[in-house]
């Protein structure tokens, strides 16, 4: 009977506590069935199950001395069967409760302290950490006073790239990462071409006569306020008013009989970036551009500081990102770059001017009246289109010079325990042509405080599944140069490593509205986060409750597309990494001092009613919650299926051209089928994940790799990165995108003679094969792919 005693010894023997991991779905309070809100991985303690088994089998039953051996055998068999039955019942109850009952699913966050990567032995961990515990821990270590002190330190004076002031701040950031006890901290340097004003030949704006003689010298303000990457040279011409410099504004000028050709165009700040204004003016054959802030775009508020009428606002004009003198190549030292420049560099000069100078010029224009919605609030200005009398001529001289400057990106890292080679990146620019309280101070303060807070949480038992990368970028005021050069340097590996990027540039420009400029894969996760973080100005309401209190749809209030002048845009459109840029702002009154020499701590704090530290702390909470979810859920909470709906929205726009294409023997069915393949591949992956072994680390890693590469799948593999860097077919720019295909098809209606069937077929092939490639990659192994057109 040794086997009998061995059986009961094995059942009753004490085992170390273990935890099993279960994939489940969140359930709203008050509902019994879990609602679809993204897969999450939670902890289910197995100790209770083992306790139930032990209780069921208990002690070895007493055996009567006179019982024959057949009875003893029969009794033993009954005991074994009863024990197995109890085990099965306990297991099923635990499994069902973890799957279906939200009261049992509870609020547990994944605990990873007792796991090792697949193939390694297990390490017993401590007690489980609950989401409420983590939030409390995060709030305990997050320090509003440290955030305020950092913003003040950063924004004491201008700190452009290459300056001694920025060198001091760079040392401060690197020393901070080291003092926090991060696992790694280092500097990554690049040698880039930056454009700066010439010391020997200042920029100028003159009124001249037909012979070029100067009649009036107009002030340009601070010589350090300029437009980096403007074309150099001197141009002379009349002046036309082009509103915000949008494409539709220049089209309206032509419709009103006003030609910008050979003239200077004066445009207002706002609506689109400086680079887009200049590109549109160049396409309209303007000779140069002047950009001014109209008081209409910055409504007055007696409680807040006002922008001086003599203030000029700087901004770069490179229609792209990164070093424009080495497009597509990383600007590492001693790299022999080919003699090529970015196609996004303008060919005409541009310079910012103040509202007072703009009013002086606009009063002298004649010509057709501007549309009513073009009118601003410059005093005594009638807002006509120009160009004025033939004798009214302006001469603009821009003499910016290119300089080779060493820039430094600074990194700090906390390594993950399970997937250390996968990381989440949070970054902000450190440089600023002005004091940069909003532009660089707030973002740098958030990055440093999050690094310090997460390092403290790790020391207190918080375990990361994936690594966290905190980055301070250089040369952000020149078009995300630092971040883009880093992307270019590691382009071949980032889609294998980076799960998401979070930008905190421009994080606090107001306290009224919360915005998330994001790629679609993060939208669902953003909703769950803003439901949990309190509004900065209403402590009894979450951010979600505030934006929906009047019945608005939260996505229409919060979600915005990624703008080109954000570092997050380059991560998605160039690197194929899901990205988001968060910001608090006010739609009715934009922060007036952004990109000016008046962007100081005091002005920013007054613009936020004295509540700047509180607003920035709330933003740090939003980003912190997002990082906790992304670094700890077993399955990355990225919505890989969202692009099915995004593609449907794009494809629907093509339907109105079906008859026109059919009349030419053309069809879009190929593209429609590729979109269907992607939707089926996403659904197939969802079912695979739902029915898989939840605690199998090999499977989890495989699924995570497929999920984190979804954004990369939408980068066109058929265009050269050096010529068309923004290869994303949905968010990028170029002939390979769905937007370019739609614009070309529209020629069938607007200008049929300009429709090029050969170009159309090429564009359709570029889009379709990118979509099909995304569907194939999401499907998994080649033997699982079923491609039918």
From TrEMBL:
Protein name: Transferrin receptor protein 2
Domain Peptidase M28 intervals: 409-615
Stated family: Belongs to the peptidase M28 family. M28B subfamily.
Domain (Transferrin receptor-like dimerisation) ranges: 667-778
Chain ranges of the PA domain: 235-300
The gene coding this protein: TFR2
Chief place where the protein resides: membrane
Organism whose genome encodes this protein: Gekko japonicus
Stored Pfam families: PA, Peptidase_M28, TFR_dimer
InterPro entries cross-referenced by the UniProt entry: PA_dom_sf (IPR046450), PA_domain (IPR003137), Peptidase_M28 (IPR007484), Peptidase_M28B (IPR039373), TFR-like_dimer_dom (IPR007365), TFR-like_dimer_dom_sf (IPR036757)
Cell location: Cell membrane
Keyword Transmembrane helix included in the entry's annotation: yes
